[in-house]
Amino acid sequence: DTTVMVLEGAFRDCASLTSLTIPFFGFERGATEKTTIHYYFGDTVPATLKEVTVKDAGVPKEAFKDCASLKTVNLEGNNGTIGESAFENCSGIFYVNFNDVTLTSIGESAFENCGNLLTLRLPEGLTEIGRMAFYKCGTMYSVTMPTSITNMSQIGYAAFWDCNSLYEIYNPGN
Fold first, then answer.
1. Residue 71: how many CB atoms within 10 A of its CB?
2. d(Cα 127, Cα 174) in Å, to the nearest integer?
3. pTM for the complete prediction?
4. Which of 8, 13, 34, 150 has its CA 20 to 30 A from that of 125?
């Protein structure tokens, strides 16, 4: 990827934008500040934004919090971590694609109240699922754990609490 800098508000008033690929969060590649999707859009993320792809970047704390219009999240490359509350209250998300991603942890409440999320296939290499990470994902019915989750201590308290439709957690390694 050749993008090295994105200015604050770069997508302000892009009211018809439906899809966005983010190569990094913040002002420039390698920056250490933690920022949210509002850095790019200002106060209002367009309700038309349905799909986000994050490439080779960790997803910071509260990055997409309250983006209810999101339907699909694609994580690609070396993402490292999904921060605390990163997708909290993104009630429209029904699919998270973890294909071809290096991910080690999913933070506390990362997908809390993503009530339309149906199924998860978590990536190999994941070693930690934070407290309440998928709390109130009421329609989720199936989770496939990676073989890198080897014991319950790697799954935080109430990680799948109030997932009323969940009937299967499959771990092929255990």
1. 15
2. 14
3. 0.89
4. 34
Q: Are 128 and 104 spatial neighbours (Cβ–Cβ below 8 Å)?
A: yes
Range scoring the smallest mean pLDDT among 6-10, 32-36, 38-42:
32-36
Instruction: Determine the straight-line distance between the first and last CA of the chain, rounded to whole angstroms.
Output: 38
In 3D space, the residue among 24, 35, 33, 32 whose CA is nearest the CA of residue 2 turns out to be: 24
* Tens-place pLDDT, residues 62-80: 888 889 999 999 999 888 8
Report the amino acid identity of residue 110.
A
Predicted local distance difference test score (pLDDT) of residue 169:
92
> What six digits make up the tokens of 102?
């290096």
